[in-house]
Amino acid sequence: GGGRHTAQIMAKVQRSGSGWQMTAIGAPADGRTFQDLMPAIAQHL
Predict the structure, then answer these.
(1) Which pLDDT score is estimated for 9?
(2) Structural domain boundaries of the chain?
């Protein structure tokens, strides 16, 4: 879908035992830098 957001939170990657686990997120967000996006990212941690 379209929208006026300027960024997208794509996925969360975390250690799982001796491997890795990826969870798709795909959430729209607004910001131009990592620091701008921290409040939106924190909701998915």
Answers:
(1) 96
(2) 7-42
